[in-house]
Amino acid sequence: MNPLYAALLGIVEGLTEYLPVSSTGHLILVSRWLRLEGEGIDAFDVVIQLGAILAVLVHYRRFLWQRTTGLLKKEKESQALLVALVVGFAPTAVVGLLLRKTIKRLLFHPIPIAAALVVGGLVMLAVERWRAKKGEPGLEGVENVTPKRALWIGLGQVVSMWPGSSRSMCTIVAGQLTGLSTATAAEFSFLLGLPTLGGATVVEAWKSRHELAAIGTVNVVVGLVVSFLVAWAVVAVFLAYLKRRGLEPFAFYRIALGVVLLVVLTRG
Questions:
Q1: Domain tally, the chain
Q2: What pLDDT, on a 0 to 100 scale, did the predictor assign at position 4?
């Protein structure tokens, strides 16, 4: 690892964390391409998610401040959002604690990632075309995320523990299927990422602290700063895009990348 590689991985993290293309999958693939492997690199790929978390905190700072002060005032909207986030986060927290090592051992490899990219792309296409046929844009506003909808979105997030499937894709699609608009599903996905990515980052940083020390403080800081700056721009642009367009272009990208990877990998 060196600052140049750290910056490149930070760019990949920032670009892909909130797009429905799988940040973990892209980070693993780029790390392997750079011939960076080992527990330290895997931990680095998780820890630099902190930059993307900070990007959402900055982008939604006013909204989050209003909801935080609303909790102190016992406002129903703020309480409902907190309940929705807790319900949405719970399934991933439980499965992550129980199966974290098994998932890393079985699925953190190029072929499972390539397969997940293709399958996820096909699911996105199917859902987009089903919604277009129905002609219903969905409910606008995170206040429409009920505990029941949050639970389904949380179960979708569990699927995203398979690298290549994408946390963003799984939660947005789950939100769409519960009747939310694409933009609202994405906004709740971003907010749900705060406890989910935050928890994963803290756990990984603690468990792999010695490996991260070997990576170097400067490299970790470079990765965090770059991922923050890139993710901050991506969040704003992606939300604006979703208010006008759907997810089909990302689906085609996933399928194309997954197929190319499978062909390359099967040919050695």
A1: 1
A2: 95
